[in-house]
């Protein structure tokens, strides 16, 4: 047991759950204690400053520099009192990660003395190097200037750096010197603003008291956990985030015993730890459980305003990675880190709420409220129908490409699930012009067990195979990848719904101008919308081959390749939609398309390089050494006159030779495909070559390597096996 794998296993087997000290206060006493929230602002700011800041947050207004100076002073006072020594503009560039540059809370006077300093100008604006972040051709390499700008709608927070103190993190947008967005947050904020205006205008037909609509989000985060020592013993996990090789263990998820099972002690301690820290940061995480695959888990929050929810999810992922180190664990956010078991998603639960406390996607039995509910429901369905390919583009990535349609995630076909009751309601609307929303009488199961309280049944089941499913008072977009920044998807979803609501208002106003009665005009418009978009509704099994065939007959797209999906962003109709909603201009959309293609190419390229290195330097070399051992054994048997006994060993020798030859030829062909792709200057064509010619070599090489794992002596195999990685205790 001299190889690195067994050393890592010896370390992993000695691990125990790390004790976690529970807070002595109640959750309500420490929740948000590390955030510069409304309560802190009210205590530290003058009434005038507090009013102007909250008005700016609620109305998307601007905060003048004088108020910014007061806010900056209050922030510094609050942060330093809690042990902060530095501050940073915390932003989300198009790398897919968060970014920060720390500056100290002091300056040097002309007399050489250090004084605490944090002005409003530093709060409002900072200047990171824009040329060092992806910009998709918006900037030349030698043009470095870019700006981060404070987003007051997302509270500043303190990040604990361990022994190094704390840092005040200020959520910010990131733009280029010429004003284009270089981040995920800026277009998202514009999309949310567009939806607010469009949805509020439509709400005014039903209730004049509604003056603001806020989209809400609850992203359920799936992830895998592995032992830290075993993680570093797998170069593919370290470099690519997923295992490029690995034979399925005898026991995986087939017994279905891991889902909602008892959480392993080490993982539970890690969960408790990051949940405590999340609560301090104002992140309302409330659900934890085992997922379907061994080693897979989920954390879910309470609903929040979309911008804040996206910030919190990005922060949560960063926090989980840091906390896992304390527990000698590593968190894997890759969509498909292990072949043959479930991949991970980030289910985006989305809805819209009004300033009057109404969920616009909550059914009602009252006629006026029912018509309002159907108005928003049908417009969302039509928006998804008309822009299904754009929504598909928003979830495209190299990682998610491994997961979509793999019988654990929705297919690449975008469809909408409403449930039997709502579908019948819309059918009645179309055929009878009747608007009746049945919330469903309380239906109780009769269990025949007197001691068990009556259990209430919803009026429709859920469909986990649907990419975009209505789940009672919200839509759940299940197709988003676990490593993704939800801002990309939320930008598209809110933009297309805003655009559709604008169209609805235009159509309705035209009818009202002709003297039609409002309620009848609305019903007629909804009937027409539903008739033209109902083909996207699907209630059945999204995993079935029959659905693929039926979807094709319906004319629904099935875009499996990420480069092909991403191309939808730069189609004329997509560019026009982003332009008229004010979310992004043509240059910003085209730059993102270029960035996502480059990201895809680089991810596949890294996987290819890792695969070639492991195959030749680890697997083939090990197989040949083992083959030499077997050859010596066979030779000894023949010399002893045991020719028949040597035959099974010779068969294994032949199998190893055959598989090694296939692997070697496959790796050589893959390298040539990579060289061919790299010589193509057009990014779009290069991405297509990586998606087809380079990736096409992955599965054949993997098949041979995984077969060798079954043949080579366990004592000699160099890579940590699935049975060792997946079952953390």
UniProtKB/TrEMBL annotation:
Signal peptide: none annotated. It comes from the Bacteria. Pfam families: Gln-synt_C (PF00120), Gln-synt_C-ter (PF18318), GSIII_N (PF12437). GO terms for biological process: glutamine biosynthetic process. SMART domains: Gln-synt_C. Residues 85-179 form the GS beta-grasp domain. Residues 184-619 form the GS catalytic domain. One of its GO terms (molecular function) is glutamine synthetase activity. Belongs to the glutamine synthetase family. This is Glutamine synthetase. It comes from Spirosoma fluviale.
């Amino acid at each position: 047991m001299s190889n690195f794998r067994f050393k890592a296993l010896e370390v992993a087997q000695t691990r125990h759950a790390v004790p976690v000290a529970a807070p002595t206060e109640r959750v309500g006493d420490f929740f948000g204690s590390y955030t510069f929230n409304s309560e802190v602002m009210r205590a530290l700011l003058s009434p005038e400053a507090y009013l102007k800041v909250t008005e700016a947050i609620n109305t998307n207004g601007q905060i003048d520099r004088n108020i910014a100076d007061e806010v900056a002073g209050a922030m510094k006072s609050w942060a330093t009192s809690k042990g902060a020594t530095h501050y940073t503009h915390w932003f989300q560039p198009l790398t897919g990660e968060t970014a920060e540059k720390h500056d100290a809370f002091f300056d040097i006077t002309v007399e050489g003395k250090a004084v605490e300093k944090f002005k409003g100008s530093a709060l409002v604006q900072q200047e990171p190097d824009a040329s060092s972040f992806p910009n998709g051709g918006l900037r030349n390499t030698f043009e470095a200037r870019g700006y981060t700008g404070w987003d007051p709608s997302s509270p500043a927070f303190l990040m604990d750096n361990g022994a190094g103190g704390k840092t005040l993190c200020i959520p910010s947008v990131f733009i280029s010197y010429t004003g284009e967005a270089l981040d995920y947050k800026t277009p998202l904020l514009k999309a949310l603003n567009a939806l607010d205006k469009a949805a509020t205008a439509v709400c005014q037909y039903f209730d004049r008291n509604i003056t603001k609509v806020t989209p809400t989000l609850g992203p359920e985060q799936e992830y895998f956990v592995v032992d830290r020592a075993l993680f570093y013993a797998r170069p593919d996990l370290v470099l690519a985030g997923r295992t490029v090789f690995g034979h399925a263990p005898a026991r995986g998820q087939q017994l279905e015993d891991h889902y909602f099972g008892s959480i392993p002690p080490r993982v539970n301690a890690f969960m408790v730890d990051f949940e405590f820290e999340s609560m301090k940061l104002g992140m309302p995480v409330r659900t934890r459980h085992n997922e379907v695959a061994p080693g897979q888990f989920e954390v879910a929050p309470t609903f929040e305003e979309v911008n804040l929810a996206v910030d919190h999810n990005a922060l949560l992922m960063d926090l989980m990675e840091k906390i896992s180190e304390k527990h000698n664990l590593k968190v894997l956010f890759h969509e498909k880190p292990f072949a043959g078991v479930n991949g991970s998603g980030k289910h985006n639960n989305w809805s819209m709420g009004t300033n009057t406390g109404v969920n616009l996607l909550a059914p009602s039995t009252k006629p006026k409220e029912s018509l309002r509910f159907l108005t928003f429901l049908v417009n969302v369905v039509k928006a998804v129908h008309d822009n299904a390919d754009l929504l598909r583009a928003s979830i495209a990535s190299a990682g998610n490409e491994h997961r979509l349609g793999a019988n654990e995630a929705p297919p690449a076909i975008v469809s909408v699930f409403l449930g039997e009751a709502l579908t019948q309601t819309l059918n009645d609307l179309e055929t009878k012009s009747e608007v009746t929303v049945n919330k469903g009488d309380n239906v109780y199961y009769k269990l025949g067990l007197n001691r068990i309280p009556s259990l209430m049944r919803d009026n429709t089941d859920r469909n986990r195979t649907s990419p975009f499913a209505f789940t009672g008072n919200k839509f759940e977009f299940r197709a988003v990848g676990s490593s993704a920044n939800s801002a990309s998807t939320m930008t598209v979803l809110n933009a297309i719904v805003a655009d559709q609501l604008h169209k609805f208002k235009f159509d309705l106003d035209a009818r009202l101008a002709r003297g039609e009665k409002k309620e009848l005009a609305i019903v007629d418009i909804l009937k027409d919308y539903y008739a033209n978009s109902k083909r996207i509704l699907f209630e059945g099994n999204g995993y079935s081959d029959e659905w693929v065939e039926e979807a094709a007959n319906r004319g629904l797209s099935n875009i499996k390749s990420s480069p092909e999906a991403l191309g939808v962003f730069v189609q004329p109709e997509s560019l026009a939609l982003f332009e008229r909603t004010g979310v992004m201009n043509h240059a910003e959309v085209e730059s993102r398309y270029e960035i996502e293609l480059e990201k895809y190419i680089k991810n596949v390229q890294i996987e290819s390089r890792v695969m070639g290195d492991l195959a030749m330097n680890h697997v083939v070399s090990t197989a040949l050494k083992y083959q030499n051992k077997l050859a010596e054994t066979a030779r000894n048997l023949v010399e002893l006159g045991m020719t028949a006994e040597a035959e099974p060993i010779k068969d294994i020798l032949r199998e190893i030779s055959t598989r090694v030859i296939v692997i070697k030829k496959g790796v050589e062909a893959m390298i040539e495909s990579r060289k061919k792709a790299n010589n193509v200057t057009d990014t779009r064509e290069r991405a297509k070559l990586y998606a087809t010619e380079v990736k096409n070599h992955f599965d054949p090489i993997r098949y041979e390597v995984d077969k060798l794992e079954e043949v080579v002596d366990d004592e000699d195999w160099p890579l940590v096996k699935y049975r060792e990685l997946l079952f953390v205790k």
